[in-house]
Amino acid sequence: MSRQRLNQWWFIGTLAAALLLMLVPLPGALAPFKPYWPALVLLYWSLESEDRVSLGLAFCVGLFADVLDGVLLGEQALRLCALTFIALRFRSRLRFFPMWQQALAVLALLLNDRILLLIVRMLAGASVPPASWWFSPFVGAALWPFLFLLLDDLRARLRIQ
Amino acid sequence: MARARDESSPLFAGNAAGTLRLIVYLALAVVLMVLDQRNGWLWRLRSTASAVVEPIYRLAGLPAAGARTLSVAFSDRQHLTSENQRLREDLLLANAKLNRMAAVAAQNQHLKKLLDTQHSLELNVQLARVIGVDLGAYRYRLTLNMGSRDGVKPGQPVIDAHGVMGQVIEVLPHTAVVMLITDPSHAIPVTIARTGLRTVAYGSRDGDMLTLPNLPLAASVRAGDQLLTSGIGGRFPPGFPVGRIEQVAPATTGMFQVAQARPAADVERSADVLLLHDQAEPEGPPGLVKPVGPPTSLEPSTAGSSASPPGAPPVERGAGP
To answer: pTM score, two decimals?
Structure first.
């Protein structure tokens, strides 16, 4: 019972940490390199434990992120829904990819996410972002193996405890 | 670990229910976005959720504040001493300038009183601190640690020691969001200090420059010209430095000149900013003036012997003979 609860809190905690990290700015010149943390953490959970992540959860996380960001309500909900859907659809294959292939898949997913964001922002009347705006998916994909291993390791330890 | 769920989702899964659910959620998100764009729901939602949102902002701002503290704690004594020295010199210079200005300002005040205008040189400001939070809008926003409880209102201009930074666009009880003048969707009416030419400076895509896209070809504009707020539009009070022109080139259409200007304010690095409280008087047609006639005290005496109307004000002073 308490193991169950611990798992639940761990799950919620990682998502909350991802949302918090989304808000923390990187100093000066590093700022465009900030990965989209909620997407990475949601991806991890949708690959690792499918029964926890659903489209509804992705939608709710996205809505909360929108309330925090204050840009456009529903924007991140849309992006995270699309991302989670693709990840869940190809989950069985993605899970057995070697790590570098998985990172490439994550790169494709994050690029797709950026394109969605660009479409939404353009329709909402924003201007075209600078070129440095496209760095973020690459950083996210490069960080993916480390994030995956770290979260896996932490999860295994928590299970053992 | 093998899960029962894995067998139900084969390698080439394609269940219609999942797709349908996706479409429903996407449609919901699109509807939300459209409604939000039209009605500004998000802001209302944010102000009701401010009890949750604001602590999270403070929490997310901690690393930036911590980094600032650490950089002070670990910077060597030499650096701090030289910075202190520099600040001392700046203060001395500013004070000297102020002392000289005081006499001019008093004279100006006196002359303005004679002219009966209400523009004043007094600054009614409030110091606010920047919270280091990334709001995801291509970094054209700032978050301040003051909100509606501290008397901040949307539309208030925000300045720093060097010039105009932007304006408040959203207010939560203890937090305010500032749109920087470098935001591509921001425009600020300016005048070029050397020639007095009035124009509009827009933010630019790259985020740290201002663009003046429609300067007349005949206008004399050159690099180094200073831009001041013109006060037209009534949002920003006149006379604050906005930026300095760095380059001028003819537009691709050949009908205008386009200038790039660097903002005077330290848009990227300011940690403390000033919120201006007194907004500029809106310039435009003056308000209706009450019809002016002879003072009411004179009225009965000019009416003279004729019967005064019953509603006429009582006479206090005998103005007549």
So the answer is: 0.73
